[in-house]
Specification:
single chain; about 260 residues; mainly alpha; Helix Hairpins; 3 domains; 12 helices; globular
Length: about 260
């Protein structure tokens, strides 16, 4: 019971922070000013998941929850909604969209469950959107947005027959990109590069790999390897500015070899 009351306590703390004699910084915040913090905390939750650290995940989820409560407090001050309204709305939505659990519909597998969810969601939003794909948030990271766009289009049959068709499309896009590079037309180069990236996203979708996750992990791996190079050079009395490309490549291959041995 004590832990349950803690949520109410956290909401109350946020109210106090926003009061006239509360925290000057918290009192200055707006919905718009909180956007960077929401994004940052969400990515830190992802980082904790990637690190497979439940201790870290517990802390980061708390930070994200704080941002949600903060936004609810701002909305409450405007007479719009509060945290309890958000929870109530979420409860109703989960029950409404899980008709195969709380209603009379049936779903023998995940695919059928998703069909029910999508059908109900489309019905709910058809009155307040301009088109089928318009409810996908425009501020999502580009790779994630591309994945959601292609995934949603595929649900209504706008898709390739199999992954070999996507590979053929990839070869076509690479040829067009090379042609654009040779023409030195910056606008055309940008457009063709975008086509390549979008096609790669679709390859990922076919093999059930989220491109945003894949690229994030690759970037993290690159940073870890580069830091290894930096530390190794420092031990030799060198730095990144004085080391040769050959020296850095040698260290890069060393760390790759170590990673390969660990994975076996």
């Amino acid at each position: 019971m004590k832990k349950r009351n803690n949520l109410t306590k956290l909401i109350r703390i946020m109210e106090i922070l926003r009061e006239p004699d509360g925290c000057p910084w918290d009192r200055e915040q707006t919905l718009k000013s909180l956007v960077p913090f929401v994004i940052e905390e969400a990515y830190e939750v992802i980082e904790a998941i990637d690190a497979r650290s439940y201790t870290m995940l517990e802390e980061e989820l708390g930070d994200l929850l704080h941002q949600i409560i903060f936004i609810c407090q701002l909305a409450k001050e405007k007479g719009r909604f509060d945290m309890l309204d958000v929870v109530d709305s979420a409860i109703k939505k989960m029950i409404r969209r899980h008709v195969h659990v709380f209603g009379k519909e049936k779903a023998d597998n995940a695919g059928e469950a998703i069909k029910h969810w999508t059908r109900i969601k489309m019905h709910e939003k058809k009155k307040r959107k301009k088109g089928y794909l318009s409810d996908i948030p425009p501020h999502l990271p580009a790779l994630l947005r591309a994945h959601k766009v292609s995934e949603k289009a595929a649900r209504v049959g706008f898709d390739w027959q199999d992954i070999n068709n996507v590979f053929e499309k990839m070869e076509e896009e690479v040829k067009e990109f090379k042609s654009a590079v040779n023409s030195r037309d910056i606008q055309e180069i940008e457009e063709e590069l975008g086509d390549i990236l979008f096609t790669i996203v679709n390859i990922g979708r076919f093999i059930e790999v989220n491109p945003e996750d894949a690229l994030r992990k690759t970037v993290g791996k690159f940073i870890a390897r580069f830091h290894f190079i930096e530390k190794s050079l420092k031990k030799e009395g060198k730095d990144l500015n004085t080391a040769t490309l050959e020296e850095m490549e040698k260290l890069w291959n060393n760390i790759k070899k170590k990673e390969s041995q660990k994975s076996k």
